[in-house]
Design a protein that fits this description.
The chain is mainly alpha-helical and 404 residues long. It folds into two domains: 11-188, MFS general substrate transporter like domains (Growth Hormone, Chain: A); 211-394, MFS general substrate transporter like domains (Growth Hormone, Chain: A, Up-down Bundle). Helix content is 77%, strand content 0%. It contains 17 helices and no strands. The chain has helices spanning 15-32, 36-42, 47-63, 65-97, 104-133, 139-168, 171-188, 211-217, 219-223, 225-249, 254-270, 272-282, 285-301, 308-324, 328-336, 342-370, 373-394.
Length: 404
C-alpha cells in the first residue's frame, strides 16, 4: 500500500497513533522484565528454570516473526497492532494470577511465550505501517524515533512497575503491564488507514508472493546487508550482559553496576533523533558504520577497565554507539523491502535480527566458559568490527535505496 500525498508530510501528523502505542507497549514490557525471573522462583522454578522462562519472551518473538508477517498481511497493520497489544494484555493478566491457580509456573511460562509472539506481531506491523505511511526522505527519522520511543518505554517501565508493587506486591508489575498494553490497544484503534495502492490497468491485483519466493528473490540482500543486521543484533544483545558481568568481575556492588547500566541507557535514549536525521540527509552508512565501530571499540575497552570510572566511560561509549544506531535495522529493512511482499520480507528480516540477538549472548557465554570473561567480551567487540565492515561494503552509498 502506498499513500498519495498532496501536501507536505509532517511526522507530527501521525505522532500519537504511530508512536503512542509503541511507548505504551514497551512500557508494559519494561514493567514486567525485572520481575519475571523472581515470579518464576516464587512459583518453584530453579535458577536455571527461571532464566529459561525469561528467555521464552525472546524465543516466542524470534520464532513467530514469519507467522507475524502473514497475520499482518491478513488483518492489516492497524488491527494486527490492536490484536497484538490486546493479546499481550491478556497474557500479562494470566501471569498476574498465576500464583493463584494450579500449575502456576506453566501458566507463567505460557504467558511469556504469548507476550513474545505478540511483540513480534506488534513490532512488524508498526514497522510496516511507518514504512508505507512516511515519505522515504523522512523514513530514518521516523524509524529511529520509533526505536527511541521503545527504549524510553523499556527504561521507565521498571520504575512504573516498582511503584505499583509498593501497593500490590510482585503481581502489581504485571497489572501495570496490563494497563499499559490495554492503553496501547486503545490508542492503536486511532491509527489512520493507509490508502490502497492503485490497481494495475487490467484491474487485477498483483499476486502476493510467498515467504519462500521472497527469501529466494532477495537472497542477495539477506546474505549481505542482512548479515550485518544479524551481527548488529548480536552486539546489541551482548552488551546488556557485558556491563553487569564485568562490574561483578571488578567487585563493584550492585548499586554501582546499576548506576553504570542506567546512565549508559540514558545516553542511549538521547541521540536517536539526530542519528535518524543524519541517515536521511547523508545516507545509512554514516550511522551504520560508526555505530558498530564505536560499540566494538567500547567492548574491547571494557576488559581493560579496572574500576568504576573506567568501566563507566566504556559503558557511556557503548550507550552512545547503540543510541545512534536506533532504528537502523528497521530502516535498512524498509529500504530493501519490495512494495509487493513487504510484510513477508520484513518477517524474514526480523527473524534474522532476532537470531543474532539470541546468538550474541550464547557466543559470549561459550567463549567465557572456554577461555575467560575478558576473552568473551573481546570476542563481542570483534563482532562490532565485523558488522562495520559488512555495512561499509554492502550498504549502497545512495541516500535512499528501495525495491532492491
Amino acid at each position: 500500500m502506498t499513500t498519495t500525498r498532496l501536501a507536505p508530510f509532517s511526522l507530527r501528523s501521525i505522532a500519537v497513533p504511530a508512536f503512542g502505542p509503541a511507548l505504551m507497549f514497551s512500557l508494559g514490557e519494561g514493567a514486567i522484565l525485572p520481575v519475571v525471573a523472581l515470579s518464576a522462583r516464587d512459583l518453584g522454578a530453579s535458577v536455571a528454570g527461571a532464566a529459561l522462562i525469561v528467555t521464552l519472551i525472546g524465543l516466542g518473538s524470534w520464532f513467530f516473526n514469519l507467522p507475524a508477517s502473514l497475520i499482518t498481511l491478513k488483518f492489516g497493520e492497524r488491527w494486527a497492532i490492536v490484536g497484538a497489544a490486546a493479546a499481550s494484555a491478556v497474557a500479562l493478566a494470566a501471569a498476574a494470577v498465576a500464583p493463584l491457580v494450579p500449575g502456576g509456573l506453566w501458566v507463567l511460562a505460557a504467558a511469556m511465550v504469548v507476550v513474545g509472539m505478540a511483540a513480534s506481531v506488534f513490532s512488524l506491523a508498526r514497522q510496516k505501517y511507518l514504512t508505507e505511511a512516511v515519505p522515504v526522505v523522512l523514513r530514518a527519522r521516523a524509524l529511529s524515533t520509533l526505536g527511541g520511543v521503545n527504549r524510553i518505554g523499556i527504561f521507565i517501565g521498571p520504575f512504573v512497575g516498582a511503584a505499583v508493587m509498593q501497593f500490590a506486591g510482585i503481581s502489581g508489575a504485571y497489572w501495570a503491564g496490563v494497563v499499559a498494553m490495554a492503553a496501547a490497544a486503545a490508542v492503536s484503534v486511532t491509527i489512520p488507514d493507509l490508502e490502497a495502492k492503485p490497481l494495475p490497468a487490467d484491474g487485477v491485483p498483483p499476486q502476493q508472493p510467498t515467504l519462500r519466493s521472497i527469501a529466494v528473490s532477495h537472497a542477495g540482500v539477506f546474505l549481505s546487508v542482512g548479515a550485518g543486521v544479524l551481527l548488529l543484533s548480536a552486539l546489541r544483545a551482548s552488551r546488556q550482559a557485558v556491563i553487569p558481568l564485568w562490574a561483578d568481575h571488578l567487585g563493584l556492588d550492585p548499586t554501582q553496576a546499576s548506576l553504570i547500566y542506567g546512565i549508559s541507557g540514558a545516553i542511549d535514549m538521547l541521540v536517536f533523533y539526530p542519528a535518524g536525521k543524519l541517515m536521511d540527509r547523508k545516507g545509512r552508512q554514516w550511522v551504520a558504520v560508526p555505530s558498530t565501530f564505536i560499540m566494538g571499540t567500547a567492548m574491547l575497552l571494557i576488559p581493560l577497565s579496572t574500576g568504576f570510572v573506567s568501566l563507566m566511560l566504556a559503558a557511556l561509549l557503548i550507550g552512545f554507539g547503540n543510541g545512534i544506531s536506533s532504528g537502523l535495522n528497521m530502516t535498512l529493512g524498509a529500504d530493501f523491502s519490495p512494495d509487493n511482499g513487504r510484510g513477508q520480507f520484513l518477517g524474514i528480516w526480523r527473524f534474522m535480527a532476532d537470531a543474532g540477538a539470541t546468538g550474541g549472548p550464547v557466543l559470549l557465554s561459550a567463549v567465557t566458559a572456554v577461555v575467560s570473561l575478558g576473552a568473551g567480551v573481546a570476542a563481542t567487540g570483534v563482532i562490532g568490527f565485523a558488522a562495520a565492515a559488512v555495512f561499509a561494503v554492502t550498504i549502497p552509498r545512495l541516500k535512499h535505496r528501495r525495491n532492491y
